[in-house]
Amino acid sequence: MTRYLLGRFAGMLVVLFIVATLVFVITRLTPGDPAAVMLGDQATQADIARLRAEYGLDRPLPVQFGLWLGELARGNLGQSIFLQIPVTEALAERVEPTFFLTLFGVALACLIGIPCGIVSAVWRGRLVDQAATGLAMLGASIPSFWLGLILIQLLAVKLGWLPVAGYGDPDADLAERLRHLLLPALVLGTLNSALIIRFTRASMLDVLSDDYVRTARAKGVRESVVILRHALRNALIPVVTVVGLTAALMIGGAVITETVFGLPGVGNLVVSAVLRRDYPVIQGALLAIAAIYVLINLAIDLLYTVIDPRVRY
């Protein structure tokens, strides 16, 4: 296990270095100059040159990249050009909405996807199977922004059950802020449940035809115990994999949902940074998201040993 973990952590460092290189190159290839954007149209070339020199943007790209890697090695993601605060502080201020949105979204996706996938597999070919499969296809086809606008119009504007947008007042308590996340979490959970339904159904169908399931039924074990204890547990590995990947994708891909609902999350911060050409924020946020993605993959691999004792590293 120790050798396996050391190998995985070494691989994580390689992946993060590749991500850091790609992010740095892509941000520098993007049209636009942060100094020119910050100073506006009335700035002179001398003003722009002075600001570029202040932030080290006039140095050769290899030098900038080397300095940034040196700061990363010390745990420093840099200083935001526009916000004038450290990138880690900017991310910390925005992480709460994104974290709870991802948590609620994954929970709703599992509550919808896993039961629907089980029912669809147990009653294969029947009306309930066709309904669950249709729900999965519908969820995979609907754009998140469209569903978000529809739910805002229905649940927030017409019925008034939930807030339209935002994250509550600055002095709002945690319960009120979480209430603002229910609608966007419903959007993410509904759409991402489609993949979980398909994987759960396929995995359960493979397991239900195995010998030990037929043996349990032949011994007179209750059908609910056969399904939930014998079949589901052995079908969980691919389901856990897709749930973990869904969580990772939500963290990095909730930009549209956060924009539609006006949530001050990490996705909204990245969009603002891209529009402002705030290189340190873009680089730091994307690198942090990549690190979380890699850690979630590692956690999924380690969770396999809990689900299936036969798996060893």
How are helices and strands ordered from N to C? HHHHHHHHHHHHHH
Morphology call: globular
Q: Estimate the helix proportion, in percent.
A: over 70%
**How many helical elements?**
14
Q: What is the terminal separation in angstroms?
A: 5 Å
Q: Rounded to an integer, what's the Rg over CA atoms?
A: 24 Å
Mean pLDDT: 82
- Give a short account of the largest sheet: none
Overall strand count: 0
Uncertain regions spanning at least 5 consecutive residues: none
List keywords for this structure.
14 helices; 313 residues; mainly alpha
What does this structure look like?
The chain has 313 residues and is mostly helical. 77% of the residues lie in helices and 0% in strands.
What secondary-structure arrangement, pairings included, does this model have?
Elements: H1 2-29, H2 34-39, H3 45-54, H4 61-73, H5 87-122, H6 127-141, H7 144-158, H8 174-208, H9 211-218, H10 223-234, H11 236-253, H12 255-260, H13 266-276, H14 279-307
Helix pairs in contact: 1-14, 5-6, 5-8, 5-11, 5-14, 6-8, 7-8, 8-11, 9-10, 11-14, 13-14
Quickly describe the structure.
This protein has helices spanning 2-29, 34-39, 45-54, 61-73, 87-122, 127-141, 144-158, 174-208, 211-218, 223-234, 236-253, 255-260, 266-276, 279-307.
